[in-house]
Design goal:
The protein is of the alpha+beta class. Helix content is 46%, strand content 24%.
Amino acid sequence: MREKAIVVETMRNHARVEIRKSAACDGCKGCSVGREGKPLKVWAKDPIGVKVGQIVEIELSAKTFLSATLIAYGIPLLAFLLGIFLAFKFSKPLNIFAVEPFALFVGLALMSFSYLMIHLFTGSKEAWKKYSSRIIRIM
């Protein structure tokens, strides 16, 4: 996945870039860029030594993008479904008569827990390095 961006800050071998709305964003409401038209600021690896104000092209490999998408959406969905399944399975032995609200609560609790775990595990430097974009050229 490639996007054009403007360099707004540099630090050692990283640059903070501002991604503006592109044609790929049309109709997508997944982030503030598509939803509100606000620019998205991210840190990117800078192997070429860019300067503030330059327009650059950044890249995030398809494999990394799909991996991040699976982590952000797949794991919480599986946790939610697992919570619902477990709640239905154990509601009878626990003498819970309001099974559906209990299942919803357990599913939401496991999904929230999964988001917390994702947040804690992806806050490390190794995860940050793996999932950050890379500047590939100056436009």
